[in-house]
Specification:
By secondary structure, the chain is of the alpha+beta class. It folds into 2 domains: 145 residues, no CATH class; 179 residues. 40% of the residues lie in helices and 18% in strands. The chain is built from 10 helices and 10 strands. The strands form 2 sheets. Strands 1-2-3-4-5-7-6 form a 7-stranded antiparallel beta sheet. Strands 8-9-10 form a 3-stranded antiparallel beta sheet. A hairpin with a 7-residue loop joins strand 3 and strand 4. It is globular and about 60 Å long.
């Protein structure tokens, strides 16, 4: 059983990271801050359609304040979706504001509804934690998924990532007779590899979603991380491998049952190759990001030392044990892991 840190400290956005975000159009002037949403007058538990507590609370605000919030939050949605063009957003309004006390980021989830057809969408307002920002940016650059987020001072705005929560998928969909279990096992192996290569931790089943896409002869599956707070934070190497969390045991058992070692190694190599290609395509941006990470503090000295020693043993390279920053550990880890793809030293990191 993996023992995870109960509460990760908040790491603020340093000037160098702010400069990086501005360079790559992640900074926006917003009409509202995270703290503004804390001024609610009441709240009540949000219950799902099965009568279960979702661990979210629906916020209640004074009427005069709600009118202002409606304008500001729909404006933020327009900035996120259409670069601020409000002409196509006039028929939208805020339907609900939910708050979650579970986890590190304490997010507000904003439900935006279309007045014409009642269709709705979500986005999130969070405290801008540096670990999460690095995680979002690395996901955007090194994974097959595009990530849309914005930062304003210490407020973070995130687009909703659609999919079936991993715990709900394991508890329900995995038991379906018509589901393609081999494809699920393959995707989980590739997801496991993606997390390890870029050191994204804590991928328990409720921290990712499964996106199901109908194909002409079956279904395709993609596992997508939705929690990035544990980017380069924990000290144990196993924390960056979803296969070691007990919440994922059912899918791990599927992988063991259906995928032999040779095929698993093939899938891992395929994923590393794709990451290598993405890295080569965005090498300057990734170099800029890693340079900022190497100067930032996003973990504790004890955790950095532990992870350095464990990665030194894994890669058989003592250089990992001498590193004092998580950014440097990630850079070395990317070099060592992706060198196995090119069969040569990765020189541009």
């Amino acid at each position: 059983m993996i023992e995870i840190s109960k509460k990760k400290p908040h790491f603020p956005i340093i000037p160098a990271l702010n400069k990086y975000l501005r360079t790559y159009q992640r900074i926006a002037q917003l009409p509202l801050r995270y703290d503004d949403l804390l001024r609610h007058s009441d709240a009540f538990p949000l219950i799902d359609h099965k009568g279960q507590d979702t661990l979210w609370e629906t916020m209640v605000y004074p009427q005069h304040m709600m009118q202002e919030l409606d304008i500001n939050l729909t404006s933020i949605y327009a900035i996120l979706k259409t670069d601020g063009d409000m002409s196509v957003m006039e028929h939208l309004k805020v339907d609900r504001i939910d708050y979650c006390t579970f986890g590190n980021s304490n997010p507000f989830r904003i439900r935006i509804i279309n007045n014409f057809n009642d269709n709705y969408d979500y986005f999130y307002v969070k405290k801008a934690d540096a670990s999460r920002v690095y995680g979002l940016e690395l996901e955007h650059l090194l994974s097959p998924n595009q990530i849309n987020f914005l930062v304003h001072q210490q407020t973070l705005i995130e687009e909703h990532i659609a999919g079936i929560p991993g715990d709900a998928f394991i508890g329900g969909y995995l038991k379906r007779q018509d589901i393609n279990k081999v494809r699920i096992a393959k995707e989980f192996i590739k997801f496991n590899e993606r997390c390890f290569v870029r050191l994204l931790g804590d991928m328990r089943s409720y921290n990712y979603v499964v996106d199901i896409t109908p194909d002409f002869d079956n279904e395709q599956y993609r596992v997508r991380a939705i929690d990035f707070d544990q980017q380069c934070y924990e000290g144990k190497r196993r924390m960056y491998l979803p296969q070691f969390f007990k919440e994922n045991n059912a899918i791990v058992a599927l992988c063991v049952e259906l995928i032999n070692l040779k095929t698993a190694e093939q899938y891992q190599q395929e994923e590393r190759t794709l990451i290598m290609r993405r890295l080569e395509q965005a090498r300057e941006r990734i170099k800029d990001l890693l340079e900022v990470m190497c100067a930032d503090t996003i973990s504790t000295p004890e955790k950095i030392q532990q992870l350095g020693q464990e990665l030194a043993a894994y890669h058989e390279d003592q250089a990992f044990a001498e590193v004092q920053k998580m950014g440097d550990l990630l850079r070395l880890h990317l070099k060592a892991t992706l060198a196995k793809v090119k069969r040569e030293k990765v020189s541009f990191l």
